[in-house]
Amino acid sequence: MTAQRIDGKALAARLQETVAARTAGLGATQGLRPGLAVVLVGSDPASQVYVRSKRRRTAEAGMQSFAHELPEDTGEAALLELIARLNTDPAVHGVLVQLPLPAHIDPMRVLAAIDPAKDVDGFHVVNAGRLATGQPGLVPCTPLGCMMLLRERHADLSGLHAVVLGRSNIVGKPMAQLLLAENCTVTVVHSRSRDLPMLCRQADILVAAVGRPELVRGDWIRPGATVIDVGINRVVRPDGTARLIGDVAFDEAAAVAGAITPVPGGVGPMTIACLLANTLIASCRQAGLPDPDLTPAPGA
Ligand SMILES: Nc1nc(=O)c2c([nH]1)NC[C@@H]1CN(c3ccc(C(=O)N[C@@H](CCC(=O)O)C(=O)O)cc3)C=[N+]21
Ligand SMILES: [Mg+2]
């Protein structure tokens, strides 16, 4: 048996197209142009690549992109001051501070400073609390993208057993909340869990988000399960070139699973498309407009 490959790159392109169409509509009917500010502190090369890619996709969607690149030795106070300015800037509807931050800056303080209405990462405790209590807010991009990928395979998740491997605030915990809201039975497992392979084998849906290259082997997968691989691990080949691998040993898992997302081309592209979707949603709410319809136009 070979699993269905869930194509995140194609789904992300479709979502981005829909977001771009709705963005153009907002401009034409409301004179409103969504704006996203992306803040990068320091010069971590991987972060620079991600941030550049976010800016390019923001512009492609017809949104305004505001770039703020601060030196590595920027103080926490200066960063908080910038966030305060972005919070009150009417042209800015979304604020994203790229993580990780340099060690001398407390990420919790920084995330707490972002206006929850502009928190397009969905990392503010107010948005985390809204998600946990079933109230409308902004949902973290990676788990939101994972839910859209799951919908490619499952019309209804009700009653399915979902196992989330990883308990981070940015993926594992919000992922568990979203699955619970879709009536899954949810188990969250992590590095201290006893017998990880046995626990993962219970999963109709397995979401791997631990950041350990190819931790999940073929014999951890229940036959026919849907596997969502959130891992983005950069590994260097013997010849010195780099490649990306997931948290799941793809070939082994694909031989057992019913459906699986690849790395690259799975969750990663959906994360950025959902960032644009969140920026559009935040813009509409700040303008007092209803949420945009993000289901693709017929034939798209
Ligand atoms: N405040 C904040 N918000 C984030 O959303 C955030 C962050 N900080 N820090 C870093 C992580 C990582 N992240 C990715 C986004 C897209 C891809 C992506 O598009 N990946 C492509 C491949 C890209 C490549 O080739 O390097 C793929 O999987 O196909 C990956 C990783 C967002 N992050
Ligand atoms: Mg991917």
Automatic annotation (TrEMBL):
Transmembrane segments: none annotated. NADP(+) binds at G166, R167, S168, I232. One of its GO terms (cellular component) is cytosol. Belongs to the tetrahydrofolate dehydrogenase/cyclohydrolase family. Residues 6-121 form the Tetrahydrofolate dehydrogenase/cyclohydrolase catalytic domain. It catalyses: (6R)-5,10-methenyltetrahydrofolate + H2O = (6R)-10-formyltetrahydrofolate + H(+); (6R)-5,10-methylene-5,6,7,8-tetrahydrofolate + NADP(+) = (6R)-5,10-methenyltetrahydrofolate + NADPH. Pathway: One-carbon metabolism; tetrahydrofolate interconversion. Pfam families: THF_DHG_CYH, THF_DHG_CYH_C. GO terms for molecular function: methenyltetrahydrofolate cyclohydrolase activity; methylenetetrahydrofolate dehydrogenase (NADP+) activity. One of its GO terms (biological process) is L-histidine biosynthetic process. This is Bifunctional protein FolD. Keywords: Amino-acid biosynthesis, Histidine biosynthesis, Hydrolase, Methionine biosynthesis, Multifunctional enzyme, NADP, One-carbon metabolism, Oxidoreductase, Plasmid, Purine biosynthesis. Homodimer. Its EC number is 1.5.1.5, 3.5.4.9. Residues 140-286 form the Tetrahydrofolate dehydrogenase/cyclohydrolase NAD(P)-binding domain. SUPFAM superfamilies: Aminoacid dehydrogenase-like, N-terminal domain (SSF53223), NAD(P)-binding Rossmann-fold domains (SSF51735). Catalyzes the oxidation of 5,10-methylenetetrahydrofolate to 5,10-methenyltetrahydrofolate and then the hydrolysis of 5,10-methenyltetrahydrofolate to 10-formyltetrahydrofolate.
